[in-house]
What does this fold into?
Amino acid sequence: MKKILTTPISDEEIQSLKVGDIVYLSGTLVTCRDEGHRRVIAEGIMPKLPMDRIAIFHAGPIVQDVEGGWKMISIGPTTSMRMERYEKEFLAKTGVKLVIGKGGMGAKTAEGCKENIAVHAVFPGGCGVIAAEQVEKIEDKEWPEFGMPEAFWILKVKEFGPLIISIDTQGNNLFEANKIDFHKKKEVALKETAQEIVSMIAKS
Amino acid sequence: MPFQLDKKEMMIRTLGKFVDMTSKELPDDVMNKLTELRSKEEKPLAKAIYDVMFENMDKAKKLSRPTCQDTGVIQYFVRTGAKFPYLGQLREILREATIRATKSAPLRLNAVEVFDEVNTGTNIGTDVPYIVWEIVDDSTNVEIEVYQAGGGCSLPGRSIVLPPLAGYEGAMKFVFDTIVDWGINACPPLIVGIGIGTCSNSSALLSKKAMLRPVGTSHPHPKAAAMEKKIEEGLNAIGLGPQGISGANSVMAVHIEGMAHHPSVLGVGVTVGCWANRHGVICFDEHLNYKIISHKGATL
Ligand code: SF4
It folds into this structure.
């Protein structure tokens, strides 16, 4: 059965999630990436939309202007790690419960998720059409001066996902754990590969 | 000369449609490899991601939408005969085709003008589209490869010039470190291009050329071909999986291109392509009859 989170998302729902769980989101999702985070934290300017208990998406969409509004053509996640510097404070300041992006985030965000009862999840990168189809409506746009990819797009989504939980409220961090494993495996693979290649070259 | 103008317009239209199409359909080589890698995954999360990727490709084609929202900076690799009659106009043709595709697809507006750091709003800017010119023979034909260089997959790219003692061992360390430190956010499974040269730019350009080589081909030099296989095995053993979630593989392919180099240095370049590797090859003859090489059965 699909697990669906609906905004406003409760703390209990967030606390029940574990890394590796697959969930979907219905309700309000806003795009907020580099410029948006900088504005909220470094400049201390909040958007008009109250962000308490909603979800944000590290994403830059392709939006087409249509009569009376906009049409979502394609939207997908961008690298979340770029927002690492600001995310913890962002969670504390906004009350956002779900951060969606690509790849993992670091220890500081994991701390922020624990303290503020929030999670980070990934949407598969490069799957912009599926995501766009799950956007029911583009309700509004703030900060248009940032340009199409960076603007604060306010979306109504239905069963948006799959979202894979990558940081939960217990401090588990899927991508950080993977990284340790990848680095261990890299040391072994690199040694073997380098040895073979060096001996291959030496044969001539 | 109205006749000339018509021809120019004809080529702009064809190329505009071709760029539009490449943003929506992945080339055969990439599709085949993704299908193979998908069948090898057993972990539920990795499988779930592949399922979404394939569903997405289906939908992109059906709805005629760009498969990934990051349609990149548009780049062209022109391999031309010296006597292709429209060579002098090709720069303008490529620029115009980019503008057309940006509107028709539509593509994301990804050209930020340098120094002013303002999005041009047209996908065009100083030296964008980026064009690499290569005169390959004396013929009247031209082969044009378009590549949509996304942000996430461009990010890991780098080159280094190693001192002689570091040698191929140092080169391997550079490649493995780059992929493990930076590859996860470039949407694996990746295509890894490695260039071996003297200086940073020659190695970097060769690595791009290597990345663009069709998946499933190997270098004609037997040693280079063996190296490609070995590095591919090594990187796959790390098991980044789709999106770095961990899985059976890391890469779709590893390609190496090289040139003779200065005895006291070894330049190494790495260029990475993401799973949504949008590259396409089209050939024109002097009458502008065209043939699409990368996407079998595609129509414009
Ligand atoms: S790395 Fe490729 S698939 Fe991933 S978001 Fe960027 S362009 Fe799209």
In short: Chain B has a mean pLDDT of 96. Chain B is about 40% helix and 20% strand. The CA atoms of residues 141 and 285 of chain B lie 4 Å apart.
